[in-house]
């Protein structure tokens, strides 16, 4: 924890929130604060008017009335195990969630303004004789290095009247960032760092959610009950939010929404990985090395085979490809009556790869078995975003474990598994054969 340089008022804490939309990650952050600072009596969510002061953030968002109703509904159901997945996990961990009607409120003071409000405006409006405590992300603090986003006047106001309670980001060294702000902007900010480990481990996984994940899941048609409480999720689906196309200055992508754009970029990466593998296989063939292969896919649904076979000259190397999704079909393929392993495991991937090589007669065989798609409140397995790859070359059987953010969409997971599979095979063939 980073100690503040001055006293702040922790009995009331404010949480500026765009809520585009709110998700379990935001509510968990508020919950974390209440656990970490038990003296807090009131946590106030400040709902944005949707006009962002950061000149680099210009995406249009739903009207505040919709975002307010989603937030209000989510807060009401946050601690209800019947309607909230984190509440169910908290119940399983035998702990009580603290965030509730008696200690939180939603401020809509921003909504009377037609112009963007800056963080310094919040500080000036809500501060009294003590420093106002504001929850912010470490990424926002990092942006304070940029004078185009935070002016000297802004930072002087924040330094004087604000205690920042910072949510960590894996890719940001907060201590180093604060040192840079002191060196480059001449300011010493008062900061406390949120400690996620105060919460039960089962709950901490919801920190991996972002509003972008929720929007893309909505666009992909996934259930949103793994991202936010039942009725809050219903508001999004009933109002058909986030299905419009992505706001992008590049006309080539203007017809795509966020999910489609993400998948488009991943598809390009997959095609590039296939081209790179093919070039290596062409060289192996010239050198008289084994180069013909087969692929068995489960969760990727044919993405690997389809992408490789779309290349000119693929028939020189590609022998056979199969999609064996169902567990009973996998039993028949492996000639077993029952499985002693999990469908997402090292042994399953290796066994599938070995059987595929034997049955296809390929020089080498690749198999993947994973779990694509975001979690579901009805799905007991918690292996979303995990994948095992099996690779058989001659008599040697290798494997690789992959793990991505579990809250990515099914299509994103499929493409990412496939990209990593082709890249790994190319690397293995180069290094070890």
Please tally the β strands and state the result. Answer: 11
How large is the count of helical segments?
A: 15
The CATH architecture of the largest domain can be named as 3-Layer(aba) Sandwich
CATH topology-level name of the largest domain = Rossmann fold
Order of helices and strands: EHEHHEHEHHEHEHHHHEHEHHEEEH
Strand order of the largest sheet: 3-2-1-4-5-6
- Mean of all residue-level pLDDT scores: 92
CATH superfamily of the largest domain: HUPs
**Structural class of the secondary structure composition?**
alpha/beta
Using only CA atoms, what is the Rg?
25 Å
**Separation, N- and C-terminal Cα atoms:** 49 Å
Assign a percent range to the helix content: 40-55%
CATH class of the largest domain: Alpha Beta
Largest sheet: 6 strands, parallel
| Overall tally of domains | 2
User: What general form does the structure show?
Assistant: elongated
Would you identify the regions where 5 or more consecutive residues have pLDDT less than 50?
1-6
Our estimate of the beta-strand percent is 15-25%
Describe the structure.
With 433 residues, this protein is α/β, with parallel strands linked by helices. The protein folds into two domains: 8-244, Rossmann fold; 258-432, Alpha-Beta Complex (Maf protein), CATH 3.90.950.20. The chain is 41% helix and 16% strand. The protein has helices at residues 24-36, 64-77, 85-92, 119-126, 138-143, 152-161, 174-185, 201-204, 211-220, 230-238, 258-286, 303-309, 327-334, 346-360, 410-432, and strands at residues 8-17, 42-47, 104-107, 131-137, 162-167, 190-193, 293-297, 318-323, 364-370, 386-393, 396-403. The strands form two sheets. Strands 3-2-1-4-5-6 form a six-stranded parallel sheet, with helices on both faces. Strands 8-7-9-10-11 form a five-stranded mixed sheet. Strand 10 (386-393) and strand 11 form a beta hairpin. Helix 4 packs parallel to helix 6 and helix 11 (258-286) packs parallel to helix 15 (410-432). The longest helix is centred in the middle third of the chain and has 29 residues, at 258-286. The chain is elongated and about 80 Å long. It starts with 7 loop residues before the first strand and ends with a helix. The model is unreliable at 1-6 (pLDDT under 50).
